[in-house]
Specification:
CATH architecture: Orthogonal Bundle
Structural class: mainly alpha
Helix content: 55-70%
Largest sheet: 3 strands, antiparallel
Number of domains: 1
Length: 97
């Protein structure tokens, strides 16, 4: 039975599991967190300034910028997005599972 386990098979199973974890993490996002994720997904890559502007266009009572930065940081820890840069030069992009 163990003879049937190949590195390719293990890689396929691992990739599938990573995709399922990614999707589950996205499904569990609250409304505000999901909107920030969707903005990054829609743009592919977006600056911090543009992500905040897009968020504020869609939400009547937006969370503070500090809270949004925490949300984006959590997205990065869960490997949903990647952050490049700091302060005003920060850019976010989607991480593919």
């Amino acid at each position: 039975m163990l003879d049937a386990l190949s590195p390719g098979l293990v890689d396929d199973v691992a990739d599938g599991a990573a995709g399922e974890v990614h999707e589950r993490n996205v499904e569990r996002l609250s409304t505000h967190k999901r909107l920030l994720y969707d903005i990054v997904k829609r743009h592919g890559e977006v600056s911090s300034t543009d992500s905040h502007a897009a968020y504020e266009e869609h939400i009547s009572a937006p969370k503070s910028k500090a809270t949004r930065r925490r949300y984006l940081g959590a997205h990065e820890r869960y490997r949903l997005i990647e952050q490049d840069g700091a302060t005003r030069g920060t850019r976010y992009r989607l991480v593919e599972p």
